[in-house]
């Protein structure tokens, strides 16, 4: 008779630890430091280099300090590299400028120290560097009130009123967090009233999605409709913010637009599979669109993980001879995850097992845990600078439609998120020829429809060079656009937005591969938003001429209006 298993006890212990660490595996952190220290101890050359760097940095700081004392002009020995923490003119005065340089010298040393040592795994080197930056950011002089000249000047100017406001802000936020209550929606940013207001009707609903059909804004329409599949890691209305939004832009130019709105899962939905988002999401929505507009091919567009799923669905349809798609557009969506950016710091067997045990206990990946991981990637701007501004300067950040949407977070079902992390992030099956749908492997190269792919220059979730790798795994006509901005701001930048530009180039079907840097050197650069470029591309891949306005829904197929947009699922928090 075998011994009893106590694995459930192990899972429970890990799950409780994960709740404290917000899903970050202590083992992954310890392994990174152990790997770094053990290899550094056997690298006398690197040790001498680091010791020499200390001496050089000390000499540079001493010379800078002497120049400050004698009033001589002196270039700062360490550049802040667009660091907004030290952007104020107050940091140019003594002694604050020296404290800034002393801190940046430490950052410079640790950046060199945590560089990969021969024999060390690259991921552990990246983790050691990341963890070091997290600790250094915490103790930056900009985060210490009596070292921060902006805080000191404001406190003197307002006789401490800023600190009183900051204390009130801190107490308000703390009590709300303890009560597990979301922040109130600011006036002027209410869903269905101020944002997500493009007119439309919900024409289909199942346990996972609602499908919104937007009302035409032109006398006639382009024959092929557009079906948009947003990520379920966020609410759909990021593409329907205010009046200047992507949905409204398409409708005003004669497109019939359908939008998937995902339901926010609860612990009861823990066993929803990743493939259910394809079958009950994309395929169900596509069938509804086909019922409204029978015989019409569909321009499909996927955003972020919605784009990854759309690529999987399109490859599966191509394998099975299903040609209902007219084109495929991917917005900041990865298909290859070998270089998936900063999020890969949180992905290995130890880390995923830790997250799985936490989700096993909760049934979902909670919104606070997900938000914490994203905030850690940019702790300077999203954590420490925000705390200094709100709790010491007493200034609340003015709301915007994008920040209000970003606070309207969603959860991830246990089974789905585990399959996503393992199958794509950890094992990269889709581009390794090992991703199976319904028991058979799919390949992106089977997709023959033209593709329009967007990458954004400062995307830390889907780095543009990773997005660009879709060129390696497809042979179809592919137009790639690189726009400035980040994962969200770069995508939702409307025409007229100041400071926007993009690069664009098209690969012919079966054309040769061009690496990302060569592509960038030869791509055409245009000023402004990429939206008009996409509209021209969609029009060029649509039937000539326009057709009569479509019906709202398909009552003959049971697709009558279930209520006005934005629907019901968008309200679930």
CATH H-level name of the largest domain... which superfamily? Alpha/Beta hydrolase fold, catalytic domain
Largest sheet: 10 strands, mixed
Radius of gyration: 26 Å
* Mean pLDDT score: 88
Task: Give the strand order of the largest sheet, numbering strands 1, 2, ... along the chain.
Answer: 1-2-5-4-6-7-12-13-14-15
CATH class of the largest domain: Alpha Beta
Helix count, DSSP H or I runs of 4 or more residues: 19
Which strand-content bin applies to the residues? 5-15%
CATH architecture of the largest domain: 3-Layer(aba) Sandwich
Inertia-based shape: globular
Report how far the terminal alpha carbons are from each other: 49 Å
Number of domains: 2
For the secondary structure, the number of strands is: 16
Low-confidence stretches: none
Tell me roughly what share of residues is in helical segments.
40-55%
Secondary-structure class: alpha/beta
* CATH topology descriptor of the largest domain: Rossmann fold
Describe this structure in words.
This protein is of the alpha/beta class. It has 19 helices and 16 strands. Strands 1-2-5-4-6-7-12-13-14-15 form a ten-stranded mixed β-sheet, with helices on both faces. The protein has a two-stranded antiparallel ribbon with strand order 3-16. Strand 10 and strand 11 form a beta hairpin. Helix 2 crosses helix 5 (122-138) and helix 3 (44-70) packs antiparallel against helix 4. The two termini are 49 Å apart. The model has no long low-confidence stretch (mean pLDDT 88).
């Amino acid at each position: 008779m075998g011994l009893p298993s106590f694995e459930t006890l192990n899972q429970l212990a890990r799950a409780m630890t994960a709740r404290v660490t917000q899903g970050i595996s202590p083992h992954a952190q310890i392994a990174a430091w152990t790997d770094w220290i053990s290899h550094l101890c056997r690298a006398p050359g690197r040790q001498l280099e680091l010791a020499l760097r200390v001496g050089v940095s000390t000499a540079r700081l001493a010379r800078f300090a002497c120049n400050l004392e004698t009033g001589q002009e002196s270039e700062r020995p360490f550049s802040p590299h667009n660091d907004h923490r030290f952007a104020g003119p107050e940091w140019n005065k003594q002694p604050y400028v020296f404290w800034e340089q002393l801190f940046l010298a430490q950052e410079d040393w640790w950046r060199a120290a945590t560089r990969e040592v021969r024999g060390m795994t690259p991921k552990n080197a990246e983790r050691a560097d990341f963890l070091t930056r997290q600790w250094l950011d915490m103790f930056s002089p900009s985060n210490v009130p009596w070292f921060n000249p902006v805080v000191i000047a404001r406190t003197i100017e307002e006789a401490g009123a800023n600190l009183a406001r900051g204390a009130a802000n801190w107490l308000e936020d703390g009590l709300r967090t303890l009560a597990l209550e979301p922040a109130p929606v600011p006036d002027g940013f209410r869903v269905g009233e101020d944002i997500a207001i493009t007119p439309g009707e919900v024409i289909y609903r199942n346990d996972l999605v609602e499908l919104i059909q937007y009302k035409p804004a032109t006398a006639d329409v382009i024959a092929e409709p557009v079906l948009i599949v947003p990520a379920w890691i966020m609410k759909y209305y990021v593409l329907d913010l205010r009046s200047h939004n992507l949905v409204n832009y398409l409708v005003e130019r004669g497109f019939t637009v359908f939008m998937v709105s995902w339901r926010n899962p609860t612990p009861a939905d823990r066993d929803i599979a990743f493939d259910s988002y394809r079958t009950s999401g994309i395929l169900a929505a596509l069938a509804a669109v086909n019922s409204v507009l029978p015989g019409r091919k569909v321009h499909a567009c996927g955003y972020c993980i919605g784009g990854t799923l759309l690529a999987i669905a399109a490859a599966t349809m191509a394998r099975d001879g299903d040609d209902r798609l007219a084109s495929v557009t991917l917005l900041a969506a990865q298909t290859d995850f070998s270089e998936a950016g900063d999020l890969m710091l949180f992905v290995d067997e130890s880390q995923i097992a830790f997250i799985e045990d936490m989700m096993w206990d909760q049934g979902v990946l909670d919104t606070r845990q997900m938000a914490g991981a994203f905030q850690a990637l940019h702790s300077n701007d999203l954590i420490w600078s925000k705390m200094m501004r709100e709790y010491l300067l007493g200034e609340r950040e003015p709301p915007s439609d994008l920040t209000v949407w970003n606070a309207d977070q969603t959860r991830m079902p246990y089974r789905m998120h585990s399959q996503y992390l393992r199958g794509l992030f950890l094992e990269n099956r889709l581009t390794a020829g090992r991703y199976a749908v319904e028991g058979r492997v799919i390949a992106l190269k089977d997709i023959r429809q033209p593709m329009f792919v967007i990458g954004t220059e400062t995307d830390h979730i889907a780095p543009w060079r990773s997005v660009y790798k879709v060129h390696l795994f497809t042979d179809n006509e592919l137009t790639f656009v690189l726009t400035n901005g980040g994962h969200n701001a770069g995508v939702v930048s409307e025409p007229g937005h100041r400071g926007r530009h993009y690069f664009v180039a098209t690969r012919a079907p079966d054309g040769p591969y061009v690496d990302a840097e060569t592509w960038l050197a030869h791509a055409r650069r245009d000023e402004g938003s990429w939206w008009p470029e996409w509209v021209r591309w969609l029009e060029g891949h649509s039937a000539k001429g326009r057709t009569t306005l479509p019906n709202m829904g398909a009552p003959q197929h049971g697709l009558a209006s279930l209520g006005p947009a934005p629907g019901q699922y968008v309200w679930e928090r």
